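ok so for the tutorial part 2 we go from a plain amino acid sequence to predicted structure tokens. step 1 is just haveing the sequence, like this:
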Amino acid sequence: MVTLTGNTFYLRALEPEDLEFIYRLENNEEIWEVSNTQTPYSRFLIRQYLENAHQDIFEAKQLRLAICKNGSFEALGLIDLFDFDAVNQRAGIGIIIQNPGDRSKGMGSEALGLLINYAFHKLQLHQLYANIDLGNVASISLFTNFGFQLAGVKKDWIKKDNIYHDEALYQLISQQ
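step 2 — the prediction. this is what the tokens look like for a chain of 176 residues:
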């Protein structure tokens, strides 16, 4: 897969050199609720994952890309298509920017726009969806700015700190 390039950022396939970045990101307990992670990942497991990252989305049912600043190889975040369903032409989409100081600077917006375009025009998907905690105002704003619409709320869906929270389902349906 070639890179998907925007004005300031680009998306690229994961490489073996991303091991430490993914290790830090996947083991950051502050984002486990967003990534639905329950336990830490070892470098060994992440290395195995990266060794299989060459599988295409039709085989793996997932596409995970690194978000990088133009002119740099360093990954700043990840954006994913997951639960890829070729028959029904849909996939879930998620994004995480590692450093909180890098958030709200347009990186997520540019990355999301690039992946939406790729999903609808190259993969010929009919719809994308995102599962977002109702308290995650920044993500709700990001996705609704691209036309994602609230499709429903899953009550008591996420348990964190022994309290249940609602999760919203947002959908974007292709107009093609």
